[in-house]
Amino acid sequence: xxxxxxxxxxxxxxxxxxxxxxxxxxxxxxxxxxxxxxxxxxxxxxxxxxxxxxxxxxxxxxxxxxxxxxxxxxxxxxxxxxxxxxxxxxxxxxxxxxxxxxxxxxxxxxxxxxxxxxxxxxxxxxxxxxxxxxxxxxxxxxxxxxxxxxxxxxxxxxxxxxxxxxxxxxxxxxxxxxxxxxxxxxxxxxx
Length: 191
Fold this sequence. Notes:
By secondary structure, the chain is an alpha+beta fold. The protein folds into two domains: about 5-70 and about 130-170, no CATH class; about 70-125, no CATH class. Helices cover about 40% and strands about 20% of the residues.
């Protein structure tokens, strides 16, 4: 059995030189974190790195932070995909291809049928409030770099101020997660 200390010796996210490099990059950014620029950020999703403590040792946290609405939509889509795979023996994920002008090409009849089926499943799930999500922080220490955090927050957007507050509260052990279960409805503008 490998203990956490032996594991952290192999994990560069615990190495002082690597932490100092990240500390300098974070300071240069003027925040308490830096974005992972290899991952696409959005108003509802951020992939960041920040420095904190784990069992008294400094470590780099590799965190994805997203809105509960985004998590809800993702879970609805996964269920719809699963049901489509059960319903259509020839199911394959719909791929959206672009033409030479960058416009999306039309789906073939079968893809259109699968897409409509999935949309109906999503609407039914929303109507029944089948999927409910709540604020959470899931930690994974068994990763190759640092410690991974998966964070869902009940916010409209994931702004730098919200990220700063999360890091402050997380690092000061004062994070207060909302235990309420939430379900969302697709708005007319998203349909």
